[in-house]
Amino acid sequence: MKMWAGRFSKELDEGVNDFNSSISFDHVMFREDIEGSMAHAAMLGAQKIIPQEDADALVAELGKIREELESGTLTFDPNAEDIHMFIEAVLTERLGDVGKRLHTARSRNDQVALDLRMYLKNRIAEIRELLRELLAVLIEKAEQNTDTILPGYTHLQIAQPVTFAHHLMAYAQMFARDDGRLAGCYGRMDAMPLGSGALAATTYPIDRERAAKQLGFSKITENSLDGVSDRDFCIELAAALSLIMTHLSRLSEEIVLWCSSEYKFVELDDAFATGSSIMPQKKNPDVAELVRGKTGRVNGNLMALLTVMKGLPLAYNKDMQEDKEAIFDSVETVKLCLKTMSPMLRTMRENPGTMRKAAAKGFINATDCADYLTKKGMPFRDAYRITGQLVAKCIERNETLETLPLSEYKAFSNLFEEDLYRAIDLAVCVGQRNIPGGPAPEQVKRQIAELKSRMGFPAKAD
Protein backbone atom coordinates (compact mmCIF):
# COMPACT_ATOMS: atom_id res chain seq x y z
CA MET A 1 0.00 0.00 0.00
CA LYS A 2 1.20 3.49 -0.85
CA MET A 3 2.19 5.84 1.95
CA TRP A 4 -0.48 8.26 0.75
CA ALA A 5 -3.25 5.63 0.27
CA GLY A 6 -5.46 6.64 3.24
CA ARG A 7 -7.79 8.74 1.11
CA PHE A 8 -8.23 6.05 -1.57
CA SER A 9 -10.46 2.98 -1.68
CA LYS A 10 -8.62 1.21 -4.52
CA GLU A 11 -5.07 0.20 -5.23
CA LEU A 12 -3.36 2.18 -7.97
CA ASP A 13 -3.76 0.63 -11.42
CA GLU A 14 -0.62 -1.34 -12.28
CA GLY A 15 -0.11 0.56 -15.51
CA VAL A 16 -0.60 3.89 -13.77
CA ASN A 17 1.85 2.80 -11.07
CA ASP A 18 4.52 2.16 -13.70
CA PHE A 19 3.66 5.44 -15.42
CA ASN A 20 3.81 7.34 -12.13
CA SER A 21 7.00 5.74 -10.80
CA SER A 22 10.34 7.56 -10.96
CA ILE A 23 12.64 5.25 -8.99
CA SER A 24 14.20 3.97 -12.21
CA PHE A 25 15.99 7.32 -12.57
CA ASP A 26 15.73 9.19 -9.26
CA HIS A 27 17.43 6.38 -7.33
CA VAL A 28 20.74 8.09 -8.16
CA MET A 29 19.83 10.67 -5.49
CA PHE A 30 19.75 8.12 -2.65
CA ARG A 31 22.74 9.62 -0.85
CA GLU A 32 21.27 13.10 -0.96
CA ASP A 33 17.86 11.82 0.12
CA ILE A 34 19.36 10.04 3.10
CA GLU A 35 21.57 12.97 4.08
CA GLY A 36 18.57 15.29 3.90
CA SER A 37 16.50 12.94 6.03
CA MET A 38 19.29 12.62 8.59
CA ALA A 39 19.50 16.39 8.92
CA HIS A 40 15.71 16.65 9.16
CA ALA A 41 15.54 13.94 11.86
CA ALA A 42 18.34 15.58 13.86
CA MET A 43 16.52 18.91 13.67
CA LEU A 44 13.21 17.34 14.77
CA GLY A 45 14.94 15.93 17.83
CA ALA A 46 16.79 19.16 18.66
CA GLN A 47 13.51 21.10 18.42
CA LYS A 48 11.74 18.51 20.62
CA ILE A 49 9.21 17.89 17.87
CA ILE A 50 9.94 14.16 18.25
CA PRO A 51 11.71 12.43 21.15
CA GLN A 52 15.49 12.71 20.99
CA GLU A 53 15.88 8.93 21.22
CA ASP A 54 13.67 8.55 18.13
CA ALA A 55 15.70 11.14 16.25
CA ASP A 56 18.91 9.33 17.18
CA ALA A 57 17.46 5.99 16.05
CA LEU A 58 16.35 7.50 12.73
CA VAL A 59 19.77 9.00 12.05
CA ALA A 60 21.56 5.76 12.91
CA GLU A 61 19.30 3.56 10.78
CA LEU A 62 19.44 5.97 7.85
CA GLY A 63 23.23 5.74 8.01
CA LYS A 64 22.98 1.95 7.85
CA ILE A 65 20.65 2.09 4.87
CA ARG A 66 23.09 4.35 3.05
CA GLU A 67 25.97 1.96 3.71
CA GLU A 68 23.91 -1.01 2.52
CA LEU A 69 22.84 0.73 -0.68
CA GLU A 70 26.44 1.74 -1.39
CA SER A 71 27.71 -1.80 -0.81
CA GLY A 72 24.88 -3.43 -2.74
CA THR A 73 23.58 -5.49 0.19
CA LEU A 74 20.33 -3.54 -0.09
CA THR A 75 18.89 -3.13 -3.59
CA PHE A 76 16.31 -0.72 -4.92
CA ASP A 77 12.76 -1.99 -5.25
CA PRO A 78 11.68 -1.35 -8.85
CA ASN A 79 8.05 -1.34 -7.70
CA ALA A 80 8.62 1.59 -5.34
CA GLU A 81 7.09 4.88 -6.40
CA ASP A 82 10.31 6.86 -5.99
CA ILE A 83 13.56 6.90 -4.03
CA HIS A 84 11.97 8.92 -1.22
CA MET A 85 9.15 6.45 -0.61
CA PHE A 86 11.52 3.51 -0.95
CA ILE A 87 13.86 4.72 1.78
CA GLU A 88 10.98 5.67 4.07
CA ALA A 89 9.39 2.26 3.54
CA VAL A 90 12.64 0.46 4.44
CA LEU A 91 13.05 2.68 7.47
CA THR A 92 9.48 2.03 8.66
CA GLU A 93 9.85 -1.71 8.12
CA ARG A 94 12.93 -1.69 10.38
CA LEU A 95 11.90 0.84 13.04
CA GLY A 96 8.12 0.59 13.02
CA ASP A 97 6.38 3.65 14.50
CA VAL A 98 9.71 5.43 14.96
CA GLY A 99 10.28 5.24 11.20
CA LYS A 100 6.87 6.80 10.62
CA ARG A 101 7.94 9.89 12.58
CA LEU A 102 10.57 10.92 10.01
CA HIS A 103 8.14 12.69 7.72
CA THR A 104 6.87 14.98 10.47
CA ALA A 105 6.94 18.65 9.33
CA ARG A 106 8.02 17.64 5.84
CA SER A 107 6.37 17.09 2.45
CA ARG A 108 7.66 15.08 -0.43
CA ASN A 109 7.57 18.36 -2.37
CA ASP A 110 10.26 20.08 -0.32
CA GLN A 111 12.09 16.77 0.08
CA VAL A 112 12.35 16.35 -3.71
CA ALA A 113 13.44 19.96 -4.18
CA LEU A 114 16.11 19.50 -1.50
CA ASP A 115 17.46 16.26 -2.95
CA LEU A 116 17.66 17.69 -6.45
CA ARG A 117 19.53 20.81 -5.36
CA MET A 118 22.00 18.76 -3.32
CA TYR A 119 22.54 16.28 -6.15
CA LEU A 120 23.13 18.98 -8.77
CA LYS A 121 25.44 20.97 -6.50
CA ASN A 122 27.63 17.88 -6.23
CA ARG A 123 27.56 17.34 -9.99
CA ILE A 124 28.46 20.98 -10.67
CA ALA A 125 31.58 20.52 -8.55
CA GLU A 126 32.53 17.47 -10.63
CA ILE A 127 31.94 19.23 -13.95
CA ARG A 128 33.96 22.26 -12.87
CA GLU A 129 36.88 19.98 -12.05
CA LEU A 130 36.63 18.36 -15.49
CA LEU A 131 36.56 21.82 -17.07
CA ARG A 132 39.73 22.69 -15.17
CA GLU A 133 41.40 19.59 -16.62
CA LEU A 134 40.40 20.62 -20.13
CA LEU A 135 41.63 24.17 -19.55
CA ALA A 136 44.94 22.83 -18.27
CA VAL A 137 45.39 20.80 -21.47
CA LEU A 138 44.52 23.76 -23.71
CA ILE A 139 46.92 26.01 -21.83
CA GLU A 140 49.71 23.43 -21.97
CA LYS A 141 49.24 23.06 -25.74
CA ALA A 142 49.16 26.83 -26.14
CA GLU A 143 52.40 27.27 -24.18
CA GLN A 144 54.05 24.84 -26.60
CA ASN A 145 52.81 26.68 -29.70
CA THR A 146 53.12 30.43 -29.12
CA ASP A 147 55.28 30.72 -32.25
CA THR A 148 53.40 28.21 -34.41
CA ILE A 149 51.90 30.16 -37.33
CA LEU A 150 48.33 29.17 -38.16
CA PRO A 151 46.01 30.66 -40.78
CA GLY A 152 43.06 32.37 -39.16
CA TYR A 153 39.71 32.07 -40.93
CA THR A 154 36.50 33.96 -41.52
CA HIS A 155 33.69 32.35 -43.53
CA LEU A 156 35.98 29.27 -43.45
CA GLN A 157 38.25 31.16 -45.84
CA ILE A 158 41.86 31.90 -44.96
CA ALA A 159 41.94 35.46 -43.61
CA GLN A 160 44.85 36.62 -41.42
CA PRO A 161 47.78 35.04 -39.61
CA VAL A 162 47.48 34.00 -35.98
CA THR A 163 49.22 31.33 -33.94
CA PHE A 164 47.99 27.92 -32.92
CA ALA A 165 48.34 29.08 -29.31
CA HIS A 166 46.09 32.09 -29.96
CA HIS A 167 43.48 29.84 -31.55
CA LEU A 168 43.51 27.39 -28.64
CA MET A 169 43.29 30.20 -26.12
CA ALA A 170 40.09 31.39 -27.77
CA TYR A 171 38.55 28.09 -26.68
CA ALA A 172 40.18 28.40 -23.28
CA GLN A 173 38.36 31.71 -22.82
CA MET A 174 35.06 30.02 -23.71
CA PHE A 175 35.56 27.24 -21.20
CA ALA A 176 36.67 29.71 -18.54
CA ARG A 177 33.37 31.55 -19.04
CA ASP A 178 31.59 28.21 -18.74
CA ASP A 179 33.27 27.67 -15.40
CA GLY A 180 32.11 31.10 -14.27
CA ARG A 181 28.54 30.32 -15.33
CA LEU A 182 28.61 27.10 -13.33
CA ALA A 183 29.92 28.97 -10.30
CA GLY A 184 27.09 31.50 -10.59
CA CYS A 185 24.53 28.75 -11.08
CA TYR A 186 25.87 26.97 -7.99
CA GLY A 187 25.50 30.12 -5.93
CA ARG A 188 21.84 30.58 -6.89
CA MET A 189 21.18 26.87 -6.36
CA ASP A 190 22.72 27.01 -2.89
CA ALA A 191 19.47 27.78 -1.05
CA MET A 192 17.78 25.09 1.05
CA PRO A 193 14.06 24.55 0.35
CA LEU A 194 13.44 22.07 3.19
CA GLY A 195 10.80 23.54 5.47
CA SER A 196 8.65 24.79 2.60
CA GLY A 197 6.34 21.82 3.16
CA ALA A 198 3.90 20.99 0.40
CA LEU A 199 3.56 24.69 -0.41
CA ALA A 200 2.68 26.57 2.81
CA ALA A 201 5.49 25.61 5.23
CA THR A 202 4.45 23.96 8.52
CA THR A 203 2.97 24.71 11.92
CA TYR A 204 5.81 22.88 13.70
CA PRO A 205 8.61 25.02 15.23
CA ILE A 206 11.31 23.76 12.88
CA ASP A 207 14.80 25.26 12.62
CA ARG A 208 15.49 25.62 8.91
CA GLU A 209 18.83 27.34 9.41
CA ARG A 210 20.11 24.42 11.49
CA ALA A 211 19.27 21.92 8.76
CA ALA A 212 20.72 24.20 6.07
CA LYS A 213 24.02 24.48 7.91
CA GLN A 214 24.24 20.73 8.44
CA LEU A 215 23.58 20.11 4.74
CA GLY A 216 26.12 22.66 3.55
CA PHE A 217 23.73 25.31 2.23
CA SER A 218 24.67 28.97 2.56
CA LYS A 219 21.07 30.14 2.88
CA ILE A 220 17.43 29.05 2.91
CA THR A 221 14.75 29.77 0.33
CA GLU A 222 12.66 32.82 1.22
CA ASN A 223 9.21 31.77 -0.04
CA SER A 224 7.58 28.40 0.55
CA LEU A 225 5.63 28.45 -2.72
CA ASP A 226 8.78 29.24 -4.67
CA GLY A 227 10.78 26.76 -2.62
CA VAL A 228 8.83 23.76 -3.92
CA SER A 229 7.93 25.00 -7.42
CA ASP A 230 11.24 26.58 -8.49
CA ARG A 231 13.15 24.71 -11.14
CA ASP A 232 15.09 27.73 -12.40
CA PHE A 233 18.24 26.11 -11.06
CA CYS A 234 17.66 23.06 -13.30
CA ILE A 235 17.03 25.19 -16.36
CA GLU A 236 19.96 27.48 -15.64
CA LEU A 237 22.27 24.50 -15.25
CA ALA A 238 20.88 22.93 -18.43
CA ALA A 239 21.60 26.18 -20.27
CA ALA A 240 25.15 26.32 -18.92
CA LEU A 241 25.66 22.71 -19.96
CA SER A 242 24.31 23.47 -23.44
CA LEU A 243 26.89 26.23 -23.80
CA ILE A 244 29.66 23.88 -22.68
CA MET A 245 28.54 21.39 -25.31
CA THR A 246 28.31 24.14 -27.93
CA HIS A 247 31.92 25.07 -27.24
CA LEU A 248 33.00 21.43 -27.27
CA SER A 249 31.13 20.97 -30.54
CA ARG A 250 32.82 23.95 -32.19
CA LEU A 251 36.22 22.66 -31.11
CA SER A 252 35.30 19.18 -32.33
CA GLU A 253 34.33 20.60 -35.71
CA GLU A 254 37.73 22.24 -36.03
CA ILE A 255 39.48 19.01 -35.07
CA VAL A 256 37.50 17.11 -37.70
CA LEU A 257 38.61 19.67 -40.30
CA TRP A 258 42.21 19.80 -39.08
CA CYS A 259 42.50 15.99 -39.29
CA SER A 260 41.34 15.84 -42.90
CA SER A 261 43.79 15.26 -45.74
CA GLU A 262 42.91 18.73 -47.04
CA TYR A 263 44.25 20.37 -43.86
CA LYS A 264 46.58 17.91 -42.06
CA PHE A 265 47.14 20.47 -39.30
CA VAL A 266 46.92 17.81 -36.57
CA GLU A 267 46.85 14.06 -36.19
CA LEU A 268 44.89 12.30 -33.47
CA ASP A 269 46.49 9.55 -31.47
CA ASP A 270 45.39 6.10 -32.61
CA ALA A 271 43.68 5.59 -29.24
CA PHE A 272 41.23 8.39 -30.10
CA ALA A 273 40.37 7.49 -33.70
CA THR A 274 38.69 4.59 -35.46
CA GLY A 275 38.98 2.83 -38.81
CA SER A 276 36.61 1.85 -41.57
CA SER A 277 34.99 -1.55 -42.03
CA ILE A 278 35.79 -1.46 -45.75
CA MET A 279 38.44 1.22 -46.39
CA PRO A 280 41.73 0.20 -44.76
CA GLN A 281 43.35 3.61 -45.21
CA LYS A 282 40.79 5.49 -43.11
CA LYS A 283 41.49 7.09 -39.72
CA ASN A 284 38.27 8.67 -38.57
CA PRO A 285 37.90 11.32 -35.84
CA ASP A 286 34.87 9.55 -34.37
CA VAL A 287 35.41 10.89 -30.85
CA ALA A 288 35.18 14.50 -32.03
CA GLU A 289 32.19 13.65 -34.20
CA LEU A 290 30.38 12.00 -31.28
CA VAL A 291 30.97 15.01 -29.06
CA ARG A 292 29.58 17.19 -31.84
CA GLY A 293 26.57 14.90 -32.17
CA LYS A 294 25.82 14.65 -28.46
CA THR A 295 25.36 18.41 -28.34
CA GLY A 296 21.94 17.91 -29.86
CA ARG A 297 20.63 15.83 -26.97
CA VAL A 298 21.87 18.33 -24.38
CA ASN A 299 20.27 21.22 -26.27
CA GLY A 300 17.09 19.13 -26.52
CA ASN A 301 17.07 18.58 -22.76
CA LEU A 302 17.19 22.35 -22.22
CA MET A 303 14.18 22.84 -24.48
CA ALA A 304 12.34 20.00 -22.72
CA LEU A 305 12.84 21.65 -19.33
CA LEU A 306 11.76 25.06 -20.57
CA THR A 307 8.65 23.53 -22.14
CA VAL A 308 7.72 21.55 -19.02
CA MET A 309 7.85 24.65 -16.83
CA LYS A 310 6.37 27.25 -19.17
CA GLY A 311 2.69 26.77 -18.22
CA LEU A 312 2.72 25.50 -14.65
CA PRO A 313 0.72 27.36 -12.00
CA LEU A 314 2.07 27.49 -8.45
CA ALA A 315 2.97 25.39 -6.63
CA TYR A 316 4.09 21.79 -7.29
CA ASN A 317 2.71 19.85 -10.28
CA LYS A 318 3.48 16.28 -11.27
CA ASP A 319 4.82 17.61 -14.59
CA MET A 320 7.91 18.59 -12.63
CA GLN A 321 8.89 14.94 -12.27
CA GLU A 322 10.03 15.30 -15.89
CA ASP A 323 12.89 17.56 -14.79
CA LYS A 324 15.16 14.80 -13.58
CA GLU A 325 15.72 12.61 -16.62
CA ALA A 326 16.52 15.66 -18.72
CA ILE A 327 18.97 17.31 -16.35
CA PHE A 328 20.53 14.02 -15.28
CA ASP A 329 21.16 13.12 -18.93
CA SER A 330 22.71 16.52 -19.65
CA VAL A 331 24.99 16.24 -16.63
CA GLU A 332 26.23 12.76 -17.53
CA THR A 333 26.64 13.61 -21.22
CA VAL A 334 28.76 16.67 -20.46
CA LYS A 335 30.88 14.74 -17.97
CA LEU A 336 31.48 11.97 -20.51
CA CYS A 337 32.43 14.40 -23.27
CA LEU A 338 34.82 16.37 -21.05
CA LYS A 339 36.45 13.17 -19.80
CA THR A 340 37.07 12.12 -23.41
CA MET A 341 38.05 15.47 -24.90
CA SER A 342 40.91 16.26 -22.52
CA PRO A 343 43.08 13.17 -23.21
CA MET A 344 42.29 13.37 -26.93
CA LEU A 345 43.67 16.92 -27.06
CA ARG A 346 46.63 16.05 -24.83
CA THR A 347 47.77 13.26 -27.17
CA MET A 348 46.99 15.15 -30.40
CA ARG A 349 50.07 15.86 -32.55
CA GLU A 350 50.40 19.23 -34.31
CA ASN A 351 51.97 19.72 -37.74
CA PRO A 352 53.47 23.24 -37.59
CA GLY A 353 55.04 22.98 -41.05
CA THR A 354 51.70 22.20 -42.67
CA MET A 355 50.05 25.06 -40.82
CA ARG A 356 52.74 27.49 -41.97
CA LYS A 357 52.54 26.29 -45.57
CA ALA A 358 48.75 26.75 -45.60
CA ALA A 359 49.17 30.23 -44.17
CA ALA A 360 51.62 31.23 -46.91
CA LYS A 361 49.40 29.94 -49.68
CA GLY A 362 46.40 31.77 -48.33
CA PHE A 363 47.82 35.29 -48.82
CA ILE A 364 47.02 36.05 -45.19
CA ASN A 365 49.68 38.76 -45.22
CA ALA A 366 47.74 40.73 -47.86
CA THR A 367 46.40 43.16 -45.25
CA ASP A 368 49.96 43.70 -44.03
CA CYS A 369 51.07 44.42 -47.59
CA ALA A 370 48.35 47.06 -47.90
CA ASP A 371 49.32 48.48 -44.49
CA TYR A 372 52.94 48.71 -45.74
CA LEU A 373 51.83 51.08 -48.52
CA THR A 374 49.51 53.01 -46.23
CA LYS A 375 52.31 53.63 -43.75
CA LYS A 376 54.32 55.12 -46.64
CA GLY A 377 51.56 57.64 -47.37
CA MET A 378 49.26 55.91 -49.85
CA PRO A 379 45.50 56.09 -49.08
CA PHE A 380 44.28 52.75 -47.74
CA ARG A 381 41.74 52.17 -50.50
CA ASP A 382 44.45 52.61 -53.15
CA ALA A 383 46.74 50.29 -51.21
CA TYR A 384 43.89 47.80 -50.89
CA ARG A 385 43.30 47.84 -54.70
CA ILE A 386 46.99 47.41 -55.54
CA THR A 387 47.40 44.56 -53.10
CA GLY A 388 44.38 42.81 -54.59
CA GLN A 389 46.00 43.08 -58.01
CA LEU A 390 49.23 41.66 -56.59
CA VAL A 391 47.36 38.68 -55.16
CA ALA A 392 45.80 38.07 -58.58
CA LYS A 393 49.30 38.22 -60.13
CA CYS A 394 50.59 35.69 -57.58
CA ILE A 395 47.74 33.29 -58.34
CA GLU A 396 48.43 33.65 -62.05
CA ARG A 397 52.14 32.85 -61.55
CA ASN A 398 51.69 30.29 -58.76
CA GLU A 399 53.63 32.52 -56.39
CA THR A 400 53.04 33.88 -52.89
CA LEU A 401 53.46 37.45 -51.76
CA GLU A 402 56.65 36.34 -50.04
CA THR A 403 58.16 34.86 -53.24
CA LEU A 404 57.00 37.43 -55.79
CA PRO A 405 60.06 39.39 -57.08
CA LEU A 406 60.46 43.01 -56.05
CA SER A 407 60.39 44.04 -59.73
CA GLU A 408 56.80 42.83 -59.95
CA TYR A 409 55.90 44.89 -56.90
CA LYS A 410 57.51 48.02 -58.36
CA ALA A 411 55.44 47.61 -61.49
CA PHE A 412 52.46 48.51 -59.32
CA SER A 413 54.08 51.15 -57.04
CA ASN A 414 57.52 52.66 -56.53
CA LEU A 415 56.77 52.81 -52.80
CA PHE A 416 57.75 49.13 -52.56
CA GLU A 417 61.31 48.59 -51.32
CA GLU A 418 63.36 45.64 -50.09
CA ASP A 419 62.02 46.11 -46.54
CA LEU A 420 58.65 44.91 -47.85
CA TYR A 421 59.66 41.28 -47.41
CA ARG A 422 60.21 41.73 -43.71
CA ALA A 423 56.88 43.54 -43.37
CA ILE A 424 54.99 40.63 -44.95
CA ASP A 425 56.96 37.85 -43.25
CA LEU A 426 54.28 35.81 -41.47
CA ALA A 427 56.10 35.76 -38.14
CA VAL A 428 56.51 39.53 -38.32
CA CYS A 429 52.87 39.97 -39.33
CA VAL A 430 51.79 38.08 -36.21
CA GLY A 431 54.37 39.71 -33.98
CA GLN A 432 53.28 43.22 -34.95
CA ARG A 433 49.74 42.53 -33.78
CA ASN A 434 51.09 43.25 -30.35
CA ILE A 435 48.11 44.75 -28.57
CA PRO A 436 46.11 43.29 -25.67
CA GLY A 437 44.04 40.46 -27.03
CA GLY A 438 46.15 40.14 -30.16
CA PRO A 439 47.95 37.04 -31.51
CA ALA A 440 51.52 38.28 -31.00
CA PRO A 441 53.45 35.69 -28.96
CA GLU A 442 54.07 38.27 -26.24
CA GLN A 443 50.36 38.93 -25.90
CA VAL A 444 49.38 35.27 -25.99
CA LYS A 445 51.88 34.51 -23.22
CA ARG A 446 50.35 37.33 -21.21
CA GLN A 447 46.87 35.93 -21.88
CA ILE A 448 47.98 32.49 -20.75
CA ALA A 449 49.51 33.88 -17.56
CA GLU A 450 46.34 35.86 -16.78
CA LEU A 451 44.06 32.87 -17.28
CA LYS A 452 46.30 30.60 -15.22
CA SER A 453 46.24 33.14 -12.42
CA ARG A 454 42.45 33.49 -12.66
CA MET A 455 41.98 29.72 -12.51
CA GLY A 456 44.53 29.23 -9.75
CA PHE A 457 46.90 27.19 -11.91
CA PRO A 458 50.63 27.27 -11.11
CA ALA A 459 52.74 29.64 -13.19
CA LYS A 460 54.97 28.13 -15.89
CA ALA A 461 58.38 27.12 -14.60
CA ASP A 462 61.34 28.97 -16.13
Kindly describe this structure.
With 462 residues, the chain is mostly helical. Helices cover 62% and strands 5% of the residues. It has 20 helices and six strands. It has helices at residues 14-20, 23-26, 30-46, 52-71, 83-95, 97-100, 108-144, 164-189, 208-214, 224-229, 232-259, 286-309, 323-347, 352-361, 366-375, 380-397, 406-410, 420-423, 426-431, 441-455; strands at 149-154, 157-163, 191-192, 219-220, 266-267, 349-350. The strands form three sheets. Strands 1-2 form a two-stranded antiparallel sheet. Strands 3-4 form a two-stranded parallel sheet. A two-stranded antiparallel sheet has the order 5-6. α7 (108-144) runs antiparallel to α20. The radius of gyration is 30 Å and the shape is elongated. The mean pLDDT is 93.
| Strand order in space, largest sheet | 1-2
Proportion of β residues? under 5%
How many helices? The count is 20
Alpha carbon gyration radius: 30 Å
Spell out the blueprint of helices and strands.
Elements: H1 14-20, H2 23-26, H3 30-46, H4 52-71, H5 83-95, H6 97-100, H7 108-144, E1 149-154, E2 157-163, H8 164-189, E3 191-192, H9 208-214, E4 219-220, H10 224-229, H11 232-259, E5 266-267, H12 286-309, H13 323-347, E6 349-350, H14 352-361, H15 366-375, H16 380-397, H17 406-410, H18 420-423, H19 426-431, H20 441-455
Parallel strand pairs: 3-4
Antiparallel strand pairs: 1-2, 5-6
Descriptors:
single chain; about 450 residues; mainly alpha; 20 helices; elongated
